[in-house]
Amino acid sequence: MSATTAQVPSEMLAAQLVEFKAAPVVQKTKAPTPSDLGPYDLLLRTAVASLCHTDLMVQAGFMPLKHGLPMTLSHEGTGVVVAAGASVEEFQPGDRVMSGITFHGCGHCDNCLAPADRDWKQYCFDTDGATGVMTDGAFAEYHVVDARMSCKVPEGVSLLTAAPLACAGVTVYRGLKVSGLGAGDWVAIVGAGGGLGHFGVQFAKASGMNVIAVEARDEGIEIAKKYGADHVLDAREGKDTVAAQVRALTPGGRGVDATVNVSDHPSAAALSAAITKSHGTVVQAAQPPEVTVPFQEIVLRDITIKGTMHGGKGVADEMLQAVARHSVVAETQIFDGLAEVPRMFELLEAGKVKGKAVCVIDKELV
């Protein structure tokens, strides 16, 4: 496809990080143009961009930026194709797209060359960055993504719903796949009423699993109930109490077959292991500074701990089809326009966001 036919303004509004540990600034910046595109790039007119806890890590200076500051935030975006690079075949102007995160993988490492069913491309460390994490992201009127990691949004799924799925949704969806569970199995989701967890509850139920939700916030408990968890437990009662409750609920008093942990709380990983049966699996999706689990869980009970990180195109496409098929819902707190982005950060830092904070950037596209 030609990358040179579309008209894009020379400037655009963007919410940018201009100083670490400071609020983002909404300002005019140079807009990407079709002539800037690499062979596998897509230029999107942004519809919606969502906020993730990883954005707070970028703000704090934990991520190695490819081009320094200022940098446009948000790796959870949707939009409509304006132009595409010369080697792009799957997408056409006007297509609705959920943005990919990995940007220009090297194409020759073990992760890039692994079989598709391993879903390792997002683990490539020799990339040109990660959209909205190391390079410019979706809190802008236009943004550029790698077509090889981006997905068409299917009919029946709104661009508003798809934005938080770009990271939160695909991360917990892949976490459930990594667990190896299927219909009839027992899964626990720790942090089940949060931005990732409420998607996990819905995906697990759609797959026929028995779902135990564990939460430590009143609003999170209500959200987990709202989206169909079979049992909802309060983590504030303590690890030993919750573990006893899980054993009482599961066949043979064994515990759940696997736990997906999407909570950053320092005690969440240990709780996740405690409620999982011997020889079971804990999938760690949350990103606290340290993950602490007593040795007894690993050595004496043979708990396996696996990590997971968002997902490649194949898993993301599969997830979007599941969203369309099962009418998966995004619990969102909607903000109108880029001017609201600094307030979104304030609320997320204060723990006052219900579900996912999403910014509608272009109402015409939503």
UniProtKB/TrEMBL annotation:
SUPFAM superfamilies for the chain: GroES-like (SSF50129), NAD(P)-binding Rossmann-fold domains (SSF51735)
GO terms, molecular function: alcohol dehydrogenase (NAD+) activity; metal ion binding
Keywords, alphabetical: Metal-binding, NAD, Oxidoreductase, Zinc
Essential cofactor(s): Zn(2+)
GO annotations of cellular component type: cytoplasm
Pfam families associated with the record: ADH_N, ADH_zinc_N
Domain Enoyl reductase (ER): 28-359
Family assignment from sequence similarity: Belongs to the zinc-containing alcohol dehydrogenase family.
Protein name as catalogued: Enoyl reductase (ER) domain-containing protein
UniProt source species: Cladophialophora immunda
